[in-house]
Amino acid sequence: MTKHPEPVDGEAGDKHGDGGTKMEKKPDGAVDEKLPDETVEKLIIEESVLTGKEHDPNFVDEIVRHGGKDVQTCLQCGNCTGVCPVSLKTPYKTRNLIKLCQYGYKRIFFTIPWICAGCYRCYEHCPADINPAEVFTAIRHILVRDKGAPAFLREMVNILMKYGQNNVPSDDIRRFRETEGLPPLWPDEKEYDAVIRELKLLFDATGYDRLMGLRKDDAK
Amino acid sequence: MRYAIYAGCTIPNRFPGIENATRIILGPEKLGAELVDIKGFTCCPALPTVYSTDRFTWLVMAARNLTLVQDEDADLVTLCNGCFSSLLKAAEELQNVVKGNRVNEVLSKVGRQYRGRLARVEGHRNFYEPVHVRHIIETLHKDFGKDAISAKVTHPFSGLRVAVHYGCHYLRPTMHTAIDDPSAPVMLDSLVEATGAESVNFADKLSCCGAGGGIRFQVPKLANAITKDKYSAMHAAGAECIVTGCPYCLFQFDHAQKELKVKPLPVLHISELMALAMGVPADRLGLDWHLVKVEPVLRKMGGGGK
């Protein structure tokens, strides 16, 4: 007499035949040309849930090890999705992604661009204190360690190691600063070479330069 | 009051006028605080780059920046939401003894040690507290207040309708100390009103500008789509100008408006608005670096005396 409980996930419920209207229609102005549509939902339902073949039992622990919260305590309430600026515009819904983490579906994260805005609205609205933004930060840690850093990030860290800042200094800015009597840009400071040397020593000590693939010579 | 200004990467290199405006309004010319110049800073470091890939390296780099101010009797004032959030988070995480010791082990390789700022001395014991990391909005509001600021306003923006954009990391996450009400903030509105302008209410006021987390560099179309919603809400509320406390949000609003080819809505940093209202000549603020021209705002500025 006990009925099998409905799947927690709303979309799953729909797909399993109670004919509900399909959730999450594309809102106006959504950007989806280059982003695969419905991939996440499809994978949750068809591949991961039914077959379980993509299950990586260590993924949840790995997330915790890299500073994320335990995603198994997620209630799947969807508060995070409702306030997420990225969920609003793309097929990637925060709640679904957390669900994929619960299933240990690590592979999917290799195909998703790094598009968490880090706005932490999900954290403020999460009743289970999951902090999805930090979970995605942990996943980025894992991706970099498994697959290497993406090109845009390597370039940024290169600039950081060269100038100590995220921007390449330009001459008209220098001229304005001089006329207004502002202090020189960091890289133009006297003895800033010493700061760059310090930075390199610190990166060497934490292993960050090797992690970002900036010292291939002795990485091996 | 003594402040050490941490201008970050974006402001000195893209909008040096904001740094100049802040130095003028906080300094002896206007509000009369003492400014300390500190050499040897590096990137805060930014949350989408270093924090996203290695938390420990992030903490070490941030701690290194904090060691430079710990011996000065000064608050570290940031002009950018990213720097503010990164440094504040680091200062609070470093209170954890285990983390702090691990960080100091690495910092000792370059002859540095993070202790924090000396809070008090009892007998022969020194007690330290985290370095005070402040945001410019909070500093202006808490240390000087609306009245002291309006007393310095000589060119009020009477009737200018302003849409304020707080920016995410001014409000969130509340894992570290919140400086304003994270769900109903007031300080930026209050500062805008101190200049004589009117802060209009609009839908989804506390949402993201769209640029955060490296979205701007990876999927600019997505960043602009997020900005467009916010822009539309501001436009619908009849705003004539956007005021924000973050140079990166400013950058995004500027670029998105150009790329989306919408009716231009000038974007200003709160320091710039404040400096203009206090009578600092516009040519000292490098306003030409703003992609969306700010002349419509300047025309609204009242001339001499209140």
Q: How many H/I helical runs of chain A?
A: 13
Classify the beta-strand content of chain A into a percent band. Answer: under 5%
Q: What is the annotated CATH architecture of the largest domain in chain B?
A: 3-Layer(aba) Sandwich
What's the tally of helices of chain B?
14
What is the structural class of chain A? Answer: mainly alpha
CATH class of the largest domain in chain B: Alpha Beta
Number of strands of chain B: 10
User: How would a crystallographer describe the biggest sheet of chain B?
Assistant: 4 strands, parallel
Per DSSP E runs of 2 or more residues, the count of β-strands of chain A stands at: 0
Percent of residues in helices of chain A comes to 40-55%
Q: Kindly estimate the percentage of residues of chain B that lie in beta strands according to DSSP.
A: 5-15%
Q: How would a textbook summarize the main sheet of chain A?
A: none
The helix/strand order of chain A is HHHHHHHHHHHHH
Query: Strand order of the main beta sheet of chain B, please?
Result: 2-1-3-6
Average pLDDT reading of chain A: 81
CATH topology of the largest domain in chain B: Rossmann fold
How many domains of chain A? The number is 2
Mean pLDDT of chain B: 94
Distance between the termini of chain A: 61 Å
Describe this structure in words.
The complex is a heterodimer of chains A (220) and B (306). With 220 residues, chain A is mostly helical. Chain A has 2 domains: 43-147, no CATH class; 151-213, no CATH class. Chain A is 52% helix and 0% strand. Chain A has helices at 10-18, 39-51, 59-65, 79-83, 85-89, 94-102, 108-111, 121-125, 132-147, 151-163, 171-180, 192-206, 208-211. The longest helix of chain B is centred in the middle third of the chain and has 17 residues, at 136-152. Chain B has 2 domains: 2-134, Glutathione S-transferase Yfyf (Class Pi), Chain A, domain 2 (Up-down Bundle); 145-299, 3-Layer(aba) Sandwich (Rossmann fold). In chain B, a hairpin with a 2-residue loop joins strand 4 and strand 5 (125-129). The two termini of chain B are 27 Å apart.
